[in-house]
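Example 3.2
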Amino acid sequence: MPIIETSAALLGLWAIVAYLLGSVPFGLILTRAMGLGNLRSIGSGNIGATNVLRTGNKTAAALTLLLDGVKGAIAVLLARASTGEDAAQVAALFAMIGHCYPVWLRFAGGKGVATFLGVMLALAWPVGLGCCIAWVLGALAFRISSMGALVGAAASTFLIILLGYGTMLLLGITLTLLVFWRHRGNIARIKAGTEPRIGEKRDAPSS
């Protein structure tokens, strides 16, 4: 879709709305509601589906993955429907920032993979679908879930170009860099050969 110029004030409003939506910590909410303990004291303390899976509850982890993606998609779709494509892109960025750096959790949030996939599916579903496929294939090929997340994020840039969504290229690169930044610890462990593999006790889909 072409981007139609929108006032800075309206874009700022959508940035705030999307940030607040993105910062809803579904992992924490679900684990507390399901009596699984304090997620902050489990595993890495991360609020994403990876750490929720370490509680041993696959349903809670799946719901966290789904809801973290849905909140990003909702932010994008609402902004697009009410304002336009430029607002949708602003919403995508700030939903991601909200998930990764929620103010109520002292800016210590998740790694953004589920929210990344959610906003990509909402912005351009062919790109989002391609990212999901790349995520799964990357995880299966390397047997490391964080590698799947990194492959899925990196694929977005190529998919945006190949599928003709050039107006969201800058956003796609920015979101990919954010995912890589949030996974910098995983990247260091991958290089050191100490990152857990799928099937090992500590492993789970990265989010």
